[in-house]
Amino acid sequence: MAPSGSRSIKRGCQRVLYWIPVLFIALIVAWSYYAYVLQLCIESIDDTGEKVIYLLVYHVVFIMFVWAYWQTIFTKPMNPLKEFHLSYSDKELLEREDRGESQQEILRRIAKDLPIYTRTNSGAIRFCDRCQLLKPDRCHHCSVCDKCILKMDHHCPWVNNCVGFSNYKFFMLFLAYSLLYCLFITATDLKYFIKFWLNGLPDTQAKFHILFLFFSASMFSVSLASLFIYHCWLVCKNRSTLEAVRAPVFRHGTDKNGFSLGFSKNFRQVFGDEVKYWPVPLFSSLGDGCSFPTCLVNLDPEQPSSPSSSNSAIKSVAEGHQFPSKPLRESQSRLLTSTPSWSESDNGVEKDKKGINSIIIVV
Questions:
Q1: What burial class does residue 237 get, using C-beta atoms within 10 Å of its C-beta: 0-12 exposed, 13-18 middle, 19+ buried?
Q2: Burial 257-290 (b: 16+ CB within 10 A, else e)
Q3: Catalytic residue numbers?
Q4: Do 328 and 289 contact (CB within 8 A), yes or no?
Q5: Is residue 185 part of a domain?
Q6: Which of 34, 175, 188, 356 is most exposed, with the fewest beta carbons within 10 Å of its own?
Q7: How far is the C-alpha of 294 from the C-alpha of 238, rounded, in Å?
Q8: Considering only CA atoms, which of 150, 138, 175, 164 is closest in space to residue 75?
Q9: Mapping DSSP to helix (H, G, I), strand (E, B) and coil, where does residue 151 land?
């Protein structure tokens, strides 16, 4: 009882500590609101038109920034669906096997019915001992959350949350709006920052707020710009931070561009098809987080093969890899056992003139 009680106390203290970076950001933002709205716009700017324009634009950017930040923090990361978890009988069977090779045989048998194409560096099935599940493609176990996270990018201390499939769009918008917020403050505060050094401001406490507001906004702009540019590059390449550090491994080997479908489709996989939702912190990403289209032509030989599946694979390459946006069962059906769609080949058998209109192929 004592060890479990001490562990729960330790876990509770850790949870409190994890919120400190978020609290720090919240205090900085609250102070910046006070300094900009009250001390700069209301106290220091005399021109009414300039004051109104600054306040209107500031509040639009501020609302979008806070909204995106809130969504990034409080959107729960998605975990693998139950189809990827081991059944009770499979767990028992796995525990009875001592040899790694036998365990891999069991995992391969289970994985053949799932849309899993990535492997470990040694070519083994990716399995999580703590969660007792087969990891979907791009899924990783977070040591902080102690869960497997779909399309995990990284665990961000500044939002006290895992950034993954469910909130990556929100994280990108948070970076974009926070950068815009800092750049707007820096640009509009610059004139009064110069007046401060030329002694053109009245001798009140407002001038000190204007001074520190400019310094803090400009410094945050530099760090946010570098981070935002890096994640824009990741979106264009359809990679996560973890995949940029260590490229995903497929059956044919490591391929850092395995999930890249071209700039347009990579972007839409994160932000969705409807342009009106791109700048809004509402979920519009494509797919189910468990399976992802790839640019690979060589299919995994361990997955079920059929004329229909190979035909659909070629079709997906030609038509641009449609994203799986349906539940897992239907995604499996589309990825692995697609409905046959036959088309006549230029070199195929010609129709018989006596009335044979089609050729029935028995598989």
A1: middle
A2: ebbbbeeebbbbbbbbeeeeebebbeebbbbbbb
A3: 156
A4: no
A5: no
A6: 356
A7: 10
A8: 164
A9: coil
Query: CB 47: neighbour CB atoms within 10 A?
Result: 9
In a domain, 134, yes or no: yes
Cα–Cα distance, 125 to 363 (Å, whole number): 29
Cα atoms in the 13 Å half-sphere on the side-chain side of 105? 7
The pTM is what?
0.80
- The answer to whether the beta carbons of residues 142 and 242 sit under 8 Å apart is no
Long-range contacts from 234-242, C-beta under 8 angstroms, 24+ separation = 234/153, 235/172, 235/266, 235/267, 235/270, 236/263, 236/266, 236/267, 237/266, 238/266, 238/269, 240/138, 240/151, 240/152, 240/153, 240/154, 241/153, 241/154, 242/140, 242/152, 242/153, 242/154
3-class secondary-structure state, position 193: helix
Query: Which residue range(s) make up the domain with 128?
Result: 82-159
Whether 120 and 249 have beta carbons less than 8 Å apart is answered as yes
- Look up residue 157 and give its amino acid: P
Residues facing residue 161 across a β-bridge: 156
Provide the residue count of the chain: 363
Q: Count Cβ atoms within 10 A of the Cβ of residue 24 and give its class: 0-12 exposed, 13-18 middle, 19 or more buried.
A: exposed
Residue in the structure block whose two tokens are 């096997």: 97
Phi-psi region of 63 (alpha: psi -120 to 50; beta: other; left: phi over 0): alpha
- Domain count within the chain: 1
DSSP class per residue in 289-306: SS----S-SS--TTS---
Residues linked to residue 154 through DSSP beta bridges, in sequence order: 163
Q: Which residues contact 211 (CB under 8 A, 6 or more apart)?
A: 193, 196
Measured CA distances, 271 to 56, 265, 276, 315, 339 (Å): 27, 10, 10, 24, 29
Answer whether residue 118 is part of any domain.
Answer: yes
Angstrom distance (rounded) from CA 52 to CA 203: 24
Question: Is 320 within a domain?
Answer: no
